[in-house]
Design brief:
Elements: H1 3-22, H2 27-46, H3 48-73, E1 96-99, E2 106-111, E3 114-120, E4 130-137, E5 140-145
Parallel strand pairs: 3-5
Antiparallel strand pairs: 1-2, 1-4, 2-3, 4-5
């Protein structure tokens, strides 16, 4: 087999395996591996040093492909960095606001310019009615019509 075809198969195989690491699937990796192995076999038939060099180069390129693949599959930032978790709603206890939606029994109210998701104890409250926060349990705010 011609040396240029061996090199083209080898570069194509490495390229497809690298592409597989960046865009996980199965097909590109299998085709790349087949091209790489075929190139190495023909490289040994051409000259033992060429085949050996191809194996060494593939052994050096494999960790790079694995690193890029794992880097692509992992989170880039921590969930704790800049993540907005639940507000502290305990400051709303005993405060009054206005129902922005009908509360049947859940809905939205406005307290001091802040929209807050709330629930009632089971009764319905009409939109626009005044409500008072009676209980706060974590992110659950319970209101009652005033």
């Amino acid at each position: 087999m011609d040396l240029s075809l061996i090199i083209v198969l080898y570069v194509l195989g490495l390229g497809l395996i690298l592409l597989e690491a960046l865009m996980p699937g199965v097909v590109l990796g299998l085709i790349g591996t087949a091209a790489l192995v075929t190139s190495i076999v023909f490289g040994f038939q051409h000259h033992w040093a060429l085949g050996t060099g191809q194996i060494v180069l593939a052994a050096l390129a494999a960790p790079v492909c694995i690193y890029l693949g794992f880097r692509r599959m992992t989170l880039r930032t921590s969930l704790n960095e800049g993540a907005a978790f639940a507000e502290n709603y305990s400051a709303y206890a005993g405060r009054e606001g206005e129902a922005l939606t009908d509360l049947r029994p859940a809905g939205m109210i406005l307290i001091d310019g802040h929209k807050v998701d709330v629930v009632t104890a089971g009764e319905s409250v009409a939109k626009g009615a005044r409500v008072r926060v009676t209980k706060v349990e974590g992110n659950r705010v319970v209101v009652k019509a005033v």
